[in-house]
Amino acid sequence: MQTATKVPRPRGSVWTDPKARAWIFQLLAIVLVVAMGWFLYDNTMTNLEKRGITTGFAFLNNTAGFGIAQHLIEYTESDSYGRVFLIGLLNTLLVSVIGIVMATLLGFLLGVARLSPNWLMRQLATVYIEIFRNIPPLLQILFWYFAVMLSLPGPRQSLSLLDTFFINSRGLYMPSPTLSDTFGLFMAALVLSVVAIVFLARWAKARREASGQIFPVALSAVGILLVVPGLAVMVAGSPVVWAIPELTGFNFRNGWVMIPELIALTLALTMYTAAFIAEIVRSGIQSVSHGQTEAAYSLGLPAGRTLRLVIIPQALRVIIPPLTSQYLNLAKNSSLAAAIGYPEMVSLFAGTVLNQTGQAIEVIAITMSVYLAISISISMLMNWYNKRIALIER
User: Fold this and answer.
1) 160: left (phi > 0), else alpha (psi -120 to 50), else beta?
2) Consecutive 10-residue averages of pLDDT for the chain (394 residues)
3) Left if phi > 0, otherwise alpha if psi is -120 to 50, otherwise beta: which for 373?
């Protein structure tokens, strides 16, 4: 009996192998990108050399020679451009953090109000959202700065609140604290209060899961925060000494000042971003099945606790991803401050420093890197929180 002999299959070329073709195309793409990058770099360096323009970051050690309206750290005109960069970074972070916190609070309130059974509250929230989200943020910044802040009276006719806070065309003047010798005792009492509240919240949660009985944790936490640190203040005295702004001559002295550019920028970005956050919150709440609300009501939970304990925790899984995009937009929109002269990264570093030094490539690269780092940090933080609250299936 004859056995069939296997005929060897002819080996094809690399172009007939899908894996080989994939590797070849990827290598060609890498080579093309590297070659393009090298061409741009070589062309840029050649042009800079022909024009006698020096490169590098040594200019950061040179003296700046100009003043800055707002700086969170000590600064004089004899400081370097490196310190100017740090001041611009801190001012950018200040606007971003304040704007994110205020826009989140306002956006959540508006989002809940959009679903309120109260007709007037629902319509007011709708009008707010439709107005502020459809006006470009730059126009809102210009409105708050030129039409509101600069139209306020001068320092001598300042608007005051309790003779402690004063607002005028030069900004908002607030008391500034100075730590006293009893501050350590006050902080110890405050830390003790926070620890007690944490244990109280855990005990209340375990009690609720075991018996269904609800303990008023929020009211108890407020009471603990008022009583324990309050006793420390009564025993040892005030932990801080407040410096009240005083009108001397043509301006106020002592205290803190929030310049009008910062107020206008913060208000505009907050109100603009809050309109988008409100719609995100509304859609997130509506994504939760109505059966969850009915089940909570059947267990005797009031509307407020149903929203806080049942609806919002489930809605957050839908809210967080688009909310991250709004945070990123707010941080990047802070660069619009250049239109009113607020000393953040773009107006201070990519504006004044660039004009004085002529180091366009280095200055723009540093500015772009800062906004990239801020955006990536926000994304990483929000992604971590999103994973933490994600549903875990059994």
Assistant:
1) beta
2) 54 69 86 89 76 75 85 86 90 93 93 88 92 93 91 84 84 84 85 90 85 80 86 83 81 83 93 94 86 79 78 85 92 90 86 84 88 93 85 50
3) alpha
Dihedral pair phi/psi, residue 370, rounded to 5°? -65, -50
Question: What is the C-alpha to C-alpha distance for residues 196 and 220, in angstroms, rounded to an integer?
Answer: 10
User: What count of Cα atoms within 13 Å lies in the side-chain half-sphere of residue 335?
Assistant: 17
Closest CA to 237 of 177, 181, 164: 181
Select from 339, 331, 292, 335 the least CA-distant residue to 311: 292
Q: What is the pLDDT of residue 64?
A: 85
In whole angstroms, give the CA distance from residue 277 to residue 351.
Answer: 31
Could you tell me the CA-to-CA distances from 26 to 12, 17, 20, 94, 271 in Å, in that order?
Answer: 21, 14, 10, 43, 46
Q: How far apart are CA 145 and CA 259, in angstroms?
A: 11
- Judge residue 338's burial from the number of C-beta atoms within 10 Å of its C-beta, 0-12 exposed, 13-18 middle, 19 or more buried: middle
C-alpha pair distances (Å), 37 with each of 23, 41, 50, 112, 366: 21, 6, 20, 50, 19
Distance between CA atoms of residues 134 and 127, nearest Å? 11
What pLDDT is recorded for position 143?
Answer: 93
Among 267, 350, 269, 268, which residue's Cα sits nearest to residue 88? 350
Q: Where are the domains of the chain?
A: 177-239
**Three-state secondary structure call for residue 240:** strand
Residue 254 falls in which region: left (phi positive, over 0), alpha (psi -120 to 50) or beta = left
Q: Name the residue type at position 124.
A: L
Instruction: Compute the distance between CA of residue 175 and CA of residue 114 in angstroms, rounded to an integer.
Output: 37
| Surface-to-core class of residue 317, CB atoms within 10 Å of its CB (0-12 exposed, 13-18 middle, 19+ buried) | middle
Six token digits for residue 50: 């022909």
**pLDDT at residue 75, as a whole number:** 87
Q: List the end-to-end C-alpha distance of the chain, in Å, as a whole number.
A: 61
Q: Is 173 helix (H, G, I), strand (E, B) or coil?
A: strand
148-177: pLDDT as tens digits: 888 888 888 888 887 788 888 888 888 888
